[in-house]
Structures are given as structure tokens and as C-alpha cells.
Design a protein that fits this description.
It is globular and about 40 Å long. It is built from 8 helices and no strands. It is 72% helix and 0% strand. The protein is mainly alpha-helical.
């Protein structure tokens, strides 16, 4: 399959705004490894090979244990690999990514506020929304990772 088009060449203002949103998220004080976990989990659910390759590589470069990355798609079976904060991040990401099921549950919302505070939890929600948007760009335009 060939890549369909470079969206940044055809709608540069929208692409720039998406990149600006990522910049805001990246500079919001969220732990960079937490951001990568969000990006990886959403990309697993959405089946975005391009983003999985990119964000698994980034997480490894940041020092994330490879074993943890290997088991993330089955994180519920490997809870000993994940902190309570990470479990809430993964659950939040799943609920945002699969928003049609029930939205963000009260349990995840309330625990997220307790663990992160309202401001940081808002940033985490936006991080999940952002990667879902990027997944749709990459999948819709048939972007593929380099070997």
C-alpha cells in the first residue's frame, strides 16, 4: 500500500494546529513516559503500526523497560508491571479511544482526579484525544513505519 498524501502539504494550518496541541501537551508537565504509554495503548487499540513503531521506540529511548512495552497490550494480565497511576492512564486511554462504549467512567475520572489533580488529568485527557487524532491521520492516509 502506498501512502495517500502528505496532509501537511494540503491542509498546513490544521496540521500546524495539531502539532501545536502536541507541543502544549508535551510541555504540560506530564511525565514523558506516561505520555508514551498513552500513545502506545491508543495506537494498539486503533491498529496504527506507524504510531506504534514511533512511540515504542520513543518509550525505549526514554528508558522504559522493553518487557513492559511487550506486555502492554495485555496489561490487565501483567498488573505487576504497572503502577496505579499507569493503570489509570491505560484505562483512561482505552475509555477515550473507545468512547462509543460509555465515555470516561466515573471510577476512572474520580481516581484520575485523586491521583493527578484536575489540571493534570485534563492534560492527560487531551493527550489521549490527540493520539487518537494522529492515529486516524496515519491509518486513513496509509502511513507505514520504515523497516
Amino acid at each position: 500500500m502506498e501512502k495517500r498524501l502528505a496532509i501537511q502539504n494540503h491542509f498546513p494550518d490544521a496540521y500546524r494546529l495539531m502539532k501545536e496541541l502536541d507541543g502544549l501537551i508535551n510541555n504540560s508537565g506530564i511525565n514523558p513516559l506516561h505520555l508514551e504509554l498513552i500513545k502506545i495503548r491508543a495506537s494498539q487499540i486503533n491498529g496504527c503500526a506507524y504510531c506504534l513503531n514511533l512511540h515504542n521506540t520513543d518509550a525505549a529511548r526514554l528508558g522504559e523497560a522493553l518487557g513492559k512495552l511487550y506486555v502492554m497490550s495485555a496489561w490487565r494480565e501483567a498488573l505487576n508491571w504497572f503502577t496505579e497511576e499507569e493503570v489509570i492512564l491505560l484505562r483512561l486511554t482505552e475509555e477515550v479511544t473507545q468512547i462509543q462504549q460509555h465515555g470516561i467512567s466515573d471510577e476512572v475520572f474520580n481516581r484520575g482526579i485523586e491521583l493527578f489533580g484536575e489540571g493534570k488529568f485534563a492534560h492527560l485527557i487531551m493527550a489521549a484525544i490527540s493520539i487518537n487524532s494522529w492515529n486516524r491521520v496515519a491509518i486513513g492516509l496509509k502511513m507505514h513505519p520504515r523497516k
